[in-house]
Design goal:
With about 130 residues, the chain is an alpha/beta fold. It contains five helices and seven strands, in the order H-E-H-E-E-H-E-E-H-E-E-H. The chain is globular and about 45 Å long.
Length: about 130
């Protein structure tokens, strides 16, 4: 994978990032994920900055714990998730994901706002065209 060090996160990230506010219900967040066929929602503040994330894995836990779907996302999101800058290399992002056992990594622009999401699926789906 050494050849990927020159490939930037913005080259393969998804621009289909789904964002919600902390006040959004878990049920609405899940509906948006299904509607957009994505594996996570990024929780943003009023300025578009990442303050949390909710993933498919989280929804499995919510189901098992019988968390009501009308609960606000802010009460159950993973706060201050790891993120990656838009100019980071794919190798940097991959190392973060492997080290922390995560499958979704919000991409942050130079202005500090969420501009995309990088998933393990994005990396695998595009890897052949990048090598």
């Amino acid at each position: 994978m050494g050849g990927l060090s020159s490939v930037r996160v913005t080259d393969i990230m998804s621009h289909r990032v789904v964002t919600v506010s902390g006040e959004t219900s878990l049920g609405e967040a899940a509906r948006r994920m299904l509607e957009k066929d994505v594996g996570s929602v990024v929780v943003v503040d009023g300025e578009g900055r990442c303050i949390g994330i909710v993933t498919e894995r989280d929804f499995l836990r919510f189901f098992v714990e019988k968390i009501p779907p009308d609960s606000p996302v802010k009460e159950h999101m993973r706060r201050d998730p790891l993120t990656v800058r838009e100019d980071a290399s794919i190798n940097e992002a991959r190392n973060i994901m492997i080290t922390h056992n995560i499958r979704h990594l919000p991409v942050i622009g130079h202005n500090g706002r969420v501009i995309g999401i990088l998933s393990v699926r994005d990396i695998f789906e595009r890897i052949e065209t990048l090598i």
